[in-house]
């Protein structure tokens, strides 16, 4: 299954620190997968407005091989990512 990692657009640097409850709600696709013990992985798919974007792949129990093959296929077709400046516009 393909799902968003986060159900909201990426936050700018340090904006997420003030919105813990909002983040928990936005990550609603990640938490149940972990509770159920399903294999999953996050795959980068590019950027939007300079902020990284990704998808979450959720696999079938004990078939991590299929999950990783699918993740590799997506990553191979995604635009090349460049490093993000961790300092942002603050410096």
Task: Describe this protein with a few key phrases.
single chain; 91 residues; alpha+beta; 3 strands; flat
Structure, explained:
- The chain is an alpha+beta fold and 91 residues long.
- The chain has one domain.
- The protein contains three helices and three strands; from the N terminus they run E-H-H-E-E-H.
- The chain has a three-stranded antiparallel beta sheet with strand order 1-3-2, covered by helices on one side.
- A hairpin with a 2-residue loop joins strand 2 and strand 3 (51-58).
- The model has no long low-confidence stretch (mean pLDDT 84).
Brief write-up:
The chain has helices at residues 20-26, 31-36, 64-77; strands at 2-4, 40-48, 51-58. The chain is flat. The protein is an alpha+beta fold.
Helix fraction? 25-40%
Order of helices and strands: EHHEEH
The Cα radius of gyration reads 15 Å
Q: What percent of residues are in strands? A: 15-25%
Low-confidence stretches: none
Q: What is the terminal-to-terminal distance?
A: 40 Å
Secondary structural class = alpha+beta
Q: Which outline best applies?
A: flat
User: Biggest β-sheet, characterized?
Assistant: 3 strands, antiparallel
Q: Taking all residues together, what is the mean pLDDT?
A: 84
Strand order of the largest sheet: 1-3-2
Beta strands, count: 3
How is this fold's topology laid out?
Blueprint (H helix, E strand, L loop, with lengths): L1 E3 L15 H7 L4 H6 L3 E9 L2 E8 L5 H14 L14
Antiparallel strand pairs: 1-3, 2-3
């Amino acid at each position: 299954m393909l799902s968003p990692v986060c159900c909201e657009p990426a936050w700018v640097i340090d904006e997420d620190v003030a919105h813990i409850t909002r983040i928990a709600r936005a990550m609603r696709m990640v938490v149940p997968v972990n509770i159920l013990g399903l294999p999953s992985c996050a795959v980068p798919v590019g950027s939007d407005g300079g902020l990284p974007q990704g998808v979450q792949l959720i696999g079938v129990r004990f078939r991590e091989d299929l999950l990783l093959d699918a993740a590799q296929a997506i990553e191979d077709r995604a635009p090349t990512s460049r490093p993000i400046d961790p300092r942002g516009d603050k410096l």
